[in-house]
Every structure is written in C-alpha cells, then in structure tokens.
C-alpha cells in the first residue's frame, strides 16, 4: 500500500479513499450467531502474542461470512463494541474460508435451506430446486456452497446426506465433517506403513544405545492402545538417573514421504469417547511404534542425571533400543502408592523402581513450585460408553498421573534447552504471559474481592500468580480466583522461536514425548536425530523453514482437534444429561452472560440457567467482576449452586437448568426430584 497526503491508495482496490487516521487491516472473519462478527488480524510472523480483534456490525460485513479472509478498515479509534473494541468495516472479501458446511436441511416453496451446525456461520444456505439430492426436511447434510450473491443468502447444493437430525450416528458424522476430520488413510500411506518389518536388525541395534537390559516400563490408562513413552529410574551417589524413552517414530516416518505428508496434514490424533482418529496408520501407532511389554522397540531416549534438589546436572539424548519390562496402569500404580498389598504383589518386579520414581517425582514437583510454576486446577471429564449406556464423571488426577507428568515435563525442558544452546531451528511449545489488559482486569477483580495483591512494576511473572493462588488456597474464594486466573492466561501454541512458557515458568520448552500422536514431537525428533547423527553443519538451512511451517500447522491442527473433541464430548454429555430431566445436581457457576448463568456440574456437564427463570425484574450482568444479579440475589463465578435439569435443547446442543427450588414436580420418582452428587 502507498500513503499520500490526502488519501490512501490500496493497489488492486480501485483507489479507495480513506481518512488518514483509519487503519487498513487484513484478517479473518469470526462470525457470531446473532449476525455480527469480529475481525481477527493476521498474526505477526513468529509471534505468539495475542492479536487485537475488531467488532464488525452486520451492516458493515458487506457479504463477508465466518472464516472469510478480508481486507477491512477501522471505523472508530476507541469505543466500538460495548466500549471494549475498535470497530471496523469490510472493504473486500479476499478469499472465502468455508466452501462446504454441515447442517440440517429444511424445505421451502422455492427449494430448501440448510441451517449450518456452525453457529458462527450465521447465514442459512439456499438450495434451489433440483440441488437437494433427494434430501428430506430434517436430514443432516453436507452442503457445497456454489455462489455468494451480493444480496440474500449463499446458494449451494446438497452433496451428501448423513442421516436424520438428532440421530446419534448422523450427529457425530456431522461433527467429523464440520471439522474436516478424515478417518481413512490414503492407500499409499497404508502401503508405506505396512512395508516395515517387525524384527529390528542387528545393524540397527548396533547403531544405538542398547537399553534392553535396563528396567523400563510404561504407565498409562487402562484403555490405552498405544504406548509411546517408557520410563526408567535409579538412585546414584549424588542423586538420580532418570530415563525417558520415546518411540522413535521418525525412523519409520521419513521426511517428505506419503506417511510424513499425511501426518503433517492431520497434525495430531483426535480422541473421542468411542473412537480415535489417529495421526498415523494402525500399523505404526498400535504396533511398530508402541512400546509393548516384552517387545524390542526403537526409541529416542533422554537420560538425565539429577541431583538431590531436582536439578539436571548432565544429560544425553540418544537413539536407543529398549525392551519394556511391564505395562502398568495409573490405577494399579496409585493403589501401590496407597499401600494396597494386592497391587504390591502384582507389581513386585518393579516396586523398587516405583519407589525411586515416587521419591524423585516429589522432588521435581517441589522444585517446579519453587521456580514459580502455576498449577491451576482444570476440571476434566471422563466419558465411558458401555453397552450403549453413557457415564460422565470427573477424570482422575492422582499422584500416579502426576509422576509421569513430572518426568515428561523435565524431558521436554531438557530437550528444548539442548536445542536452544545449539541454536537449532526447532519447534518450541510457548505460552506467552497474559496481556496487560487482561492482567489489569484480573488485579482489579482481586481488589474487588478485598485481596491486596501487589503487582511487580518490572513486569508480569509466574511467581506473582503462584503467590495469589497460595494465598487464597484455604479460602472460599479459591475456586473463583482459580477460574478467573485461568481465563486471564493465554493459550499455549507452537513456535520456531524460544519465547518461554509462562505457566511452567520455563525459559525453554518443547513437546518431545508423544510423536505417535503429535506432529510437533515428530518434527522435534527428526531434527534431534539429524543433529546427533551428523552434527549442526547445514541444519539451519535444512530445517529453518520446516520449523516455521510445522509450528504454524501444528498450532492450527491442535486448535481444530481441541474444538472437535470438545464438540463430541459436549454431545455425549448432552445425551447423558437428557436422561436426567427433573433430577437435581450440585454444581458451580462457570460463566455469566446477559442471557443467564452457565453452571458446571461436578461431573463436567455444563448447562444454561436462563435469566428469566432467576426471578427479579432487573438482571444486571457485571462481566468485569463475573457476577449476575437477579433482583436481590447475586451469583458469582465459582459459586456453588444446586440445579435441576429442565431439559436439553438438541438443536443448539445445550442443556437447560433451573436453580433448584421447592415445589417443582417433573420427571423423577413419584413426580418429585432425585438428588445426586454427580
């Protein structure tokens, strides 16, 4: 673009004349079901910092839809949407972002419409006569968009019928289509994976560190199918030796092969309650790269010598071969730690090693806390489907899980530090510090609670947030502060630059430990093995671009996978709670909006309590202080409440709750209410 004294010329945009104070921005439209949208500007190269978004009223979208790449101009310097954002208007749609949608088909006199499942895509797609491919009203369909008229709805054609709306199979298929998740692998990829032999050659073993006689084992969940990390530990004169041994996936997935290109496109495995969409074919993820008990497997090991304070004083990263001595589960390891004699008998061949690991994990956790690592409580749900019955309950988080987590974190830090000091092109896992705006709001929120938390004038440090949590740990305000702090934090992403990890209070961090299911880990392994094999000469030229585009792709695919997993989990939770209409549960306020309260049950199911059901003529939503006032009653984020399940909205995929009150008669035993602590 070129700036003149009285006008701004944008080449290719027919000399659009703009006031000089206005800014021209390129970005992506993020829609809202109410018809307005936000502009998400393009992120600066290699930056993990959050970008400022802009509010776009419906009248200024000019035909732009959710997902479109656009050129916009700002329309206000300050003010904007509810006084919080600068506003913008669309100048031109550069590229349509969504060319195929999934939704529900309905008929009309002139043809039909498809109502998108993606609520951010606020426009229904018109299907002219003859373009419906025999779809019936109420069918879940895939619709390809053909044109975008200047006025009115986009027009399209039904390309696939998935089944009937609200049918479980059709609803789940629609989510996979919505996020463009492919279950099947191309034939060339399958054939490439199948060509590898089971037996490891003597030449391959000779080229590696032979750890087959070292006591190594895996610890995973009962239902785990792939085992990509094994551990070993022993005491030394000055501390401990810890080995983290990771499946050498890069041995099989060669650079720029069909396997590699497919893994890159997928980016990550995606986990659902009743299925997994893996990043790699089954031949690799569940066989050759799975560290199964009693089977020789190729690995990449990070072996660390750790002093008694938990500091790594020496380490080696090396290709290796192991033979896992046992396949342990978190449940039986925790039972052993809790003193269960039956578990001790079952695990007798590794109990000495487990004792060493427990001792070391406690030291590592303590050291991490001393460095300022922030341990926020994040509630996860476990969903179990057995004989068609769905159960939802809080996911376990015991010391056995924590032990493996401590070892994996330490290995990730050690590998990242190795890459940093060798100045390797690399894929780092980075977590930026909270923005100044969010931090200001957080401290203002604390002040409103009567908590005098002093800010460090030099900047924002993890230790500051850690101290706030520790101060509130034994108070009733702790759950609330934990939730608000979580919302204050940024989301971790991948980056070719070592920008640090705020939450862990680490300068260098990466993902090294799960190359079966995450492409960034595979990329890290590939770079490491190349450096170990031939040194650093030529590494920058070979991998600089790769590290950059692998970081961008991995971040994007992780975001898509997270959204898909959340959508499927929420659907299962909806089916679970739909069978419990009229029953009561304990929960906490998890969100406040003008329309009402979101309440999360102890099992992880979330639902909406509509504002009009709360009583009181006046509803006041204070988003800065996370409160909703209905009449004389004020509800605060994190506040315990008891709710009754009023029903489910299957169209919006949302549970509807009521604050429990005497006198309700609905479904339940003898017309009354069942009480639960889910």
Topology:
Elements: E1 2-3, E2 8-9, E3 24-31, E4 37-41, E5 54-56, E6 69-74, E7 88-95, E8 100-108, E9 111-116, E10 125-128, E11 139-147, E12 155-164, H1 168-178, H2 187-194, H3 202-206, E13 209-211, E14 217-220, E15 229-235, E16 239-247, H4 258-266, E17 270-271, E18 276-277, H5 282-288, E19 296-307, E20 312-323, E21 326-329, H6 330-337, H7 341-346, H8 351-371, E22 381-386, E23 389-394, H9 399-421, E24 428-430, H10 436-448, H11 462-472, H12 478-488, E25 493-495, H13 519-534, H14 539-578, E26 584-593, E27 596-601, E28 606-610, E29 619-622, E30 627-630, E31 633-636, E32 640-649, E33 654-659
Helix pairs in contact: 1-14, 8-9, 10-12, 11-12, 13-14
Q: What features would you describe in this structure?
A:
The protein is an alpha+beta fold. Helix content is 28%, strand content 29%. It contains 14 helices and 33 strands. The protein has a five-stranded antiparallel β-sheet with strand order 5-4-3-6-7, with no helix packed on it. It has a five-stranded antiparallel β-sheet with strand order 10-9-8-11-12. Strands 13-20-19-16-15 form a five-stranded mixed β-sheet. Helix 1 runs antiparallel to helix 14, helix 11 packs antiparallel against helix 12 and helix 13 runs antiparallel to helix 14 (539-578).
């Amino acid at each position: 673009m070129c700036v003149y004294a009285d006008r701004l010329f944008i080449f290719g945009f027919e000399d659009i004349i703009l006031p000089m104070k206005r800014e021209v921005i390129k970005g992506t439209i993020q829609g809202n079901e109410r018809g307005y949208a936000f502009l998400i500007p393009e992120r600066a190269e290699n930056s993990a910092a959050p970008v400022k978004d802009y509010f776009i009223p419906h009248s200024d979208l000019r035909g732009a839809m959710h997902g479109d790449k656009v050129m916009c101009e700002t329309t206000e310097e300050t003010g904007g949407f509810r006084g919080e954002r600068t506003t913008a208007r669309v100048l031109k749609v550069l590229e349509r972002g969504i060319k195929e949608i999934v939704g529900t088909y309905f008929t009309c006199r002139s043809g039909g419409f498809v109502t998108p499942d993606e609520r951010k895509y606020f426009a229904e797609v018109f299907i002219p006569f003859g373009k419906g491919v025999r779809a019936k009203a109420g069918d879940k369909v895939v619709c390809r968009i053909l044109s975008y008229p200047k006025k009115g709805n986009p027009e399209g054609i039904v390309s696939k019928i998935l089944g009937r709306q609200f049918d479980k199979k059709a609803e789940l298929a629609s989510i996979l289509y919505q996020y463009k998740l492919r279950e099947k692998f191309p034939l060339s990829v399958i054939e490439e994976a199948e060509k590898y032999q089971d037996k490891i050659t003597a030449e391959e073993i000779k080229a590696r560190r032979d750890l087959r006689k070292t006591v190594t084992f895996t610890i995973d969940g009962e239902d785990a199918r792939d085992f990509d990390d094994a551990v070993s530990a022993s005491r030394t004169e000055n501390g401990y030796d810890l080995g983290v041994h990771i499946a050498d996936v890069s041995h099989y997935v060669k650079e720029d092969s069909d396997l590699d290109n497919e893994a890159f496109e997928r980016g990550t495995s995606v986990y659902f309650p009743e299925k997994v969409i893996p990043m790699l074919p089954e031949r690799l993820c569940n066989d050759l790269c799975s560290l199964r008990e009693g089977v020789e497997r190729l690995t990449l090991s990070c072996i660390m010598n750790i002093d008694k304070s938990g500091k790594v004083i020496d380490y080696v990263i090396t290709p290796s071969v192991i033979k896992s001595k046992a396949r342990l589960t978190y449940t039986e390891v925790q039972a052993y730690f809790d003193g269960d004699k039956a578990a001790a008998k079952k695990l007798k061949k590794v109990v000495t090693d487990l004792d060493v690991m427990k001792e070391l994990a406690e030291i590592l956790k303590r050291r991490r806390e001393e460095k300022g690592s922030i341990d926020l409580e994040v509630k996860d749900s476990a969903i179990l489907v057995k004989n068609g019955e769905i159960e939802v309950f809080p996911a376990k988080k015991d010391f056995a899980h924590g032990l493996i987590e401590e070892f994996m974190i330490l290995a990730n830090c050690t590998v990242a530090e190795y890459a940093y000091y060798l100045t390797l092109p690399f894929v780092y896992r980075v977590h930026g510090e909270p923005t100044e705006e969010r931090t200001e709001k957080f401290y203002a929120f604390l002040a409103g609670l009567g908590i005098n938390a002093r800010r460090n004038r030099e900047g924002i440090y993890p230790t500051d947030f850690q101290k706030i949590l520790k101060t509130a740990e034994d108070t009733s305000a702790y759950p609330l502060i934990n939730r608000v702090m979580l919302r204050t934090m940024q989301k971790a992403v991948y980056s070719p630059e070592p920008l640090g990890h705020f939450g862990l209070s680490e300068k260098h961090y990466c993902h090294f430990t799960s190359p079966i299911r995450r492409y960034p880990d595979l990329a890290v392994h590939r770079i490491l093995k190349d450096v170990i094999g031939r040194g650093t000469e030529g590494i920058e030229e070979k991998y600089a671009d790769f590290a950059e585009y692998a970081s961008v792709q991995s971040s994007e695919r992780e975001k898509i996978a997270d959204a898909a997993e959340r959508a499927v989990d929420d659907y299962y939770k909806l089916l679970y709670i739909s069978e419990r209409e009229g029953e009561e549960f304990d929960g906490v306020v998890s969100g406040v909006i003008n329309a009402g309260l979101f309440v999360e049950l102890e099992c992880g199911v979330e639902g909406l309590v509509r504002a009009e059901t709360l009583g009181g003529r006046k509803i006041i939503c204070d988003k800065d202080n996370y409160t909703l006032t209905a009449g004389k009653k004020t509800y605060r984020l994190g506040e315990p409440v008891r709710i009754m399940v009023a029903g489910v909205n299957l169209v919006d995929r949302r549970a509807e709750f009521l604050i429990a009150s005497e006198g309700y008669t609905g479904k339940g035993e003898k017309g009354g209410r069942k009480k639960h602590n889910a």
